[in-house]
Here is the input.
Amino acid sequence: MARHKEFDRDTALQKAMNLFWEKGYEATSIQDLEKHMGIGRRSLYDTFNNKYDLFVETLGRYHLMRQGQTRANFEVLDSPSSILRAIFTDLVYEAVNDSDRKGCLYINSAVELAARDGVVASKSKTVYQGMETMFQNLLIQAQQAGEINIDMDTLSVAQTLTVTFFGIRVMAKMNPDETVLNNVVNNSLSFLP
Here is the structure.
């Protein structure tokens, strides 16, 4: 007879995500995961297969969490320009108030693993492309609303905004200076009304 799991899978996954986010993949041991998640090794392996599969699942969870936070701006703001500005305002706020300087789990993971791990590289590229597409769509909508120049190359600007977004995340881990980060945002968004 199979033994009943004595833990909440979702809670355990959230705890694992937070630990990988704080320490990185390589620096997180199975013992760290057992202790942090509050489950035994057998339960960890029975539920998540292995450390790597658990890590990949936490990346998916993190991505969904971040998408939900970004989507909140779309629901309360009424113009593409204000959404773009809010995304970057929120980014700087998070960066400056990230006392642990954890940054972004996806960026941390890409820097740590993407050069040698095809799955992480692919997932990171998907996230990057999703951001780029979101920015380009907002720029096209801003053009259609008459908020920005109709002749703007929306793909090039979207690529610049995506690199700026991820660059701010990395920069803030080293130097979360609000003035510096706001200057970067203001220069990057100078085309907005």
